[in-house]
Amino acid sequence: MPRWNPRDAIIEAEGLTKQYGAHRALSDVSLKVPPGTIGLLGPNGAGKSTFIKCLLNLEAPTSGSARVLGRDIRAANRGSRERVGYSPEQDSYISGMAGCEYVTYCGQLSGMPFRSARQRSHEILDLVGMGQERYRAVDTYSTGMKQRVKLAQALVHDPEVIFLDEPTNGLDPSGREHILTLIGSLWRDLGISVVMSSHLLRDIERVCDRVIIIAKGRVLEHESIAALMERHRHIVELAPTADADRFVTVLTAAGARVERLSTGKLRVESASDSVGWILEQMRAHGLPPADIVANPNALHELFIKAITDAHGPQP
Amino acid sequence: MDLSLDLSQWREEPLGVAYRRATIVTVGLRQLIRTRFFRVLLAIAWVVGSLMAAFGFLFTQSVASGGWLDSLASNFGPRGHALALSLSAVVLLYPDICIGTLFTALFWLQSWFGLWLSLIALTALVPGLVTRDRASNALTIYLSRPLTSADYLLGKLGIIAGTIVLLWTGPLFLGWLLSIAFAPDRNFLVYSFGPLMRALLFNGIGLAALAGISLGVSAVARSSRTAIVLWLGLWLVAGIVAAPPFMPAFVRRASFSNDLIQIRQEVFRLDEALTAAGDQLPILDRQIASRLDRAGENARPMDFTGALAGLAVLTGLSSVVFLRKLRPE
Fold first, then answer.
1. Of chain B residues 16-55, which have a CB less than 8 A from chain A?
2. Could you tell me the pTM of the whole model?
3. Are residues A121 and A237 in the same domain?
4. Which of A41, A42, B184, B295 is most buried, most CB within 10 Å of its CB?
């Protein structure tokens, strides 16, 4: 079988649909995802996990087709998962095994010889921050440790792409920081593409270079983070040190849409994609200094907008 | 936070599916062998196998000229010596009956031990087959790898087969091999081969039935405790309920242990071997011959076809349950 070219799309879906009785969990999903760190964003029940499960053949798609690393998920059932790692959302482990033994076993299940699997398992467990706990039974692990060992088993066989379903759930702040840093460096340093599903926009924004927004089983947005930010450049958040009312009057008079936020800040939307005109207005009207942040919460705003456009305002 | 990814790369071609299935089997068996309970069962099984080998060895040496029987009998004077010689002569004159009956009885006895030890071992193994995997979502881990549910099934079947080979088939083979390895006459090989094949046939039937039923029980239970209770219920409780002879046939057939006992009687046909020995061996007096006849009567199969059908239904139902539950969760 010809080897997958790293410049090709890691995922190609065409009309992928998954129906559970009357409920359509995934609706006619067609996309082509290039390699990189991709965030799969959507509210709970949006179809993120179903999309990943369909790509891994854990759920049989009702219709449509998909290719992962160039291999058709139906025609090359086993083959399509050879170079793929998966860390599911819920706790998943093989009971009665120590952490290192479990990760080694997972490597072997992916076709690694025992020695290679054992060596890689220790390296990966070091990487995810597991110390001596690796010699304890997985059943006794805390939620955070289970999350780490899940990530380790997904990485042990050196995959070309890994699917991570809510990988930071249950982690304490330092653990979350560690895992996000690790996920962020997988593509950059090792060339392992990451598809990370999450409802935490900050996690996605921090580590991903591309985002797919899903809601009600439909792909609403599929764009690089840079392009999304570019689209959002005309929004500015402003925190005046005083005279907020004057700021509102001046900026509204200048043609901007100004909204007061509950934090006391002002959200300014204008046709301009730079903050130069605001500085100009402040100088001209002798306004007091203010903190200005360009395109804040860009992903959040786009996320809410995309969902609202598709389904109407959220309650 | 600075993170250095100091990792070895693994870009080799993954080993084939046979290796991955074998991994499921070997790791499953290794987990089982780690338990003291299973090690005790293993010790009992191989001691029984060794005893069978020792008995078979002594028997085969009895016909050797100047062998242990000859030497031992000489100590009891000319009459004892004559008796030993006549015993050897009977074995040489009636090898089909003497060797066939003795090995049939030996294997029949060993099959009882093998079956019971396997049933006891499966009590400990059943929760670890599918129940725990379902409870801990391990099925997702298996099926997100280059494995299908059929590979998973074959791996689990392999664990059951491995358990039965270790506790039943292995000791049987050892017993037979050591028995005939030093035999002075090729008749021992020829006439023990039939009983060996019958023992292996029953072993195979037992393996198929126990694999199907234990996988079904393991798949249907939601916790380890439920799996054990269900298994013991199907094996012991149903077995005890079905044991009394006055029970209707359908109740008896609903017990897989009872069905296996009936099939064992039919496969070995110990009754025929004992009756033939009682009828044809000239050195046995009437009393011994009639005892052999009575023993044969007790070993006669009562409801082979019904038991086979009952076992097939139980195994089939269990397999259906297993295959339905195996879907990824």
1. 16-17, 19-20, 23-24, 27, 31
2. 0.82
3. no
4. A41
